[in-house]
Amino acid sequence: MARPGVLLSSSGLRVGIAGRTFCRDLALTVQPGECLAILGRNGAGKSTLLSVLAGLRAPEAGEVLLDGASYAELGARASARIRGWLPQSRSEAFSSTVLETALVGRHPHLARWDWESAKDARIACQALAAVGLAELAQRDVQTLSGGERQRLSIATLLAQAPRLYLLDEPLAHLDLNHQIATLELFAARARDEAIACVMVLHEPGLAARFCTHALLLFGDGMTEQGPCQEVISSEWGCLESP
């Protein structure tokens, strides 16, 4: 049953792959203003769980609700207006400008045969400015560095303007300054604009600093979740050790 004010929820959720169970009977809620970090060792199932929460992979059991409805009930376009998805990697097969790429984020808000409007272009430009790419708006994406491409992916997601951001390793390819800037950006939007974030991170220290809640995956189906100050402590310092 949907709960008022809950953007994302799961009940009885079991997620696994190739005979391994990453979580079982997971009950999760994410509300506006919250930033949830998913933490665990490599191979613990963080990305697999996030893809299930994004509606891109079916769980072995249980259900996921987005704003009180299933992904099947909402459909792809309505889902994309509510939740945005940042995958681990994204390649640009064709030549396009940075601005044209950021404008792709506006597509869920357009009717089937509509073109992007001046308002859409303004939103895309604001998204590029938010990640420090405004001056590169007319650059070809094929000429960007790995870090610049990652920031462009984030800008495209910002242009989409969802209420829920699902971010799979958003700090990949970024130097430390841009890692901090990215986390500050999403934390501020959650706080000031009542959006919510769920992100896969590798650093418990960064999660504790910028996120409100954490979900720990232990790789054997066991999980622990709660406010960061309660579930992230010195004993989790080795959480990401191989």
Automatic annotation (TrEMBL):
Molecular-function annotations in GO: ATP binding; ATP hydrolysis activity
Keywords of the record: ATP-binding, Cell membrane, Membrane, Nucleotide-binding, Translocase, Transport
Stretches assigned to coiled coil: none
Location of the ABC transporter domain: 8-241
InterPro entries the UniProt entry points to: AAA+_ATPase (IPR003593), ABC_transporter-like_ATP-bd (IPR003439), ABC_transporter-like_CS (IPR017871), P-loop_NTPase (IPR027417)
Function: Part of the ABC transporter complex HmuTUV involved in hemin import. Responsible for energy coupling to the transport system.
Protein's recorded name: ABC transporter ATP-binding protein
UniProt source species: Candidatus Accumulibacter affinis
Phylogenetic classification of the source organism: Bacteria, Pseudomonadati, Pseudomonadota, Betaproteobacteria, Candidatus Accumulibacter
